[in-house]
Structures are given as structure tokens and as C-alpha cells.
Amino acid sequence: MTEIDNVIAKIRALKTPTIIENEPMSKLTTFKIGGPIRAVVFPNSFEAVEPVITAIKRGGLEPLFLGNGSNLLCTDDPIERIAVCSRPDGSGYQPYTELLPGSRIAASSGSLLGRLAMVAMTNGLSGLEWSSGIPGTLGGAVKMNAGAYGGEMSQVIETVTVISPSRKELTLSNDACQFSYRHSRFCSDDSEFITAAVIKLQPGDPAEIQSKMRELSKRRKDKQPIDLPSAGSTFKRPKDGYAAELIEKAGLKGYRTGGAAVSEKHSGFIVNLGGAVCSDVLRVMEHVQEEVLRQFGIELEPEVKIIDNVLPIRYR
Asked: How many domains does the structure of the chain reveal?
């Protein structure tokens, strides 16, 4: 029995989480790409997270924290890791939201951003309209400081609750999260599991909030390839210009390798046209980076996170 088998056996002995072995990451990511991961653990409560993480770390492994998988590109090879997933799939656990005084919402990390935006709108709270079409979870959005249309998580986060490497629950202030463009302390240190956050919003008119959400939804539908699997924006915005604009000017719209291509609708997206594998996407990404650098002298940095068997997650 290997060490990872021993760890899985110890987690099973806890009896609180649901464990699925050899689950294809293509089922757990919006890119619909990725080989089987050794195990995915779905804790049925946040109290169950701590012993799971402890078992993984004591086995000499690094857990992979997983939300909705909306920003991940996974290798097609078997992944010898154990994922701890905040989604409710198969666990019986349901994400929660709670209204707090002072135009605030407390929510668990597995809550989908679209649902949070609807809760805010229904209760006349403004500030999350930009997030209504993002398919990620709150935990993932906090980790990468997700944003769109001029809004981002750093603008609305009041506190974030995590389980720390010392296995203690900590509540971190906005400043302590060290937010920057598409980055937070949780990107640099993959050892803190986000369990919940408090979002600070502003009072607003529900009808106006709904109108804004509908407007942004139409913009997304008109301009983004939301009908095809992807991981959202593939590259971060460079200091000079916009990634999509540079890619289009480089003549790369529609550039294809295998089943992966630069979207014909929005050059900032690489999409899975059907049957794409990880290497297809990587080749498209690398060609785009090479051409934009050659033609404009600008290096594009990936926004998508690449997961392989190098520990921990490799951020290219």
C-alpha cells in the first residue's frame, strides 16, 4: 500500500467526508479537461475539514483545494494528489448565506458567486452585480481576487475565515488577505483552506440592481464564448493594453491546435471546441505568448492555473 493509499484509508476512517477515487478532473472543471485525480474529498461540514487536512499533511502530501474548478487547467495524466472540495457534491453539505447587520452577507466558501449576487439583489444590496455571471465559488473568487467590469473581490471582502496550517480557525481582515490584481496571500501559500467570508455591500434599489445584472449578462452573452468550455480569461491584463486586444492584433483569433482554440468571439479566451486535451491548450497558450512577445514586446502572464503532479500547484 502506498502512502497516498494510507492517507485515503485514514480519511475514510473519519467517516464524515465523502470520498471519490480516481475521479476525472474533466468532470470537476469548467474547461472539461483533465485526467483522474487519486481522490476527491467532500467534507460534510467545515468541522470535518480540519482532520482531513491533518491526515493529508501528516502523510507528507499537499492538499489541492478545489471549488468549482472554473480557473483550472489540469494535466491529462493521473494526478497523484488528494483534493478537498468545498462544493456540496455527494457530501450532503449545503453552502450557506446569512444576512448580517450593516449591509453585509456571510457565506461559506462553496457558495456560487451567481447565487450570492442573487441574494444581494433580492435584499437590495449593491456591489456584487459584476459577479453574477462568474461560474466560480466564493472561496475560489477570494483566492484569485476574481473580478469583472470594474469590480473585484477586494472591493467587497470584509473578512475571510480560514483553517490555518496549525489547524486553527483564523479570521483575516481584508488587508491581511494581501489582495492585488488576480492575486491574494492564498495564491502564494496553498496551505490555508478558506471556509467562509463576510461581504460588505451598499444599500440599493433591487430593480436597479437587477437591471444592471441583466445588462452585464447580455454583454457576457454577446461578447464571450459562454457556450463553450473554458477557464474564463486565459491571460492576465498586462500593464500596457489588454490581452484580448493584443492577441487579436497579432492575428491569432481562431488559432487552433487539436481541440483547443483562441475564441473567435473573444480573443482573451481559449476554448475547448470538443475533445481538447491539456497539451492542446498549452500549445495554444505558448504560441500566443510567443507571438505577442515577438510582435509587441509584451509578456502575457497566464491567469488560468495549471495543475500537474508537481507539488504544490504550479503557477506558470
From this structure: 3
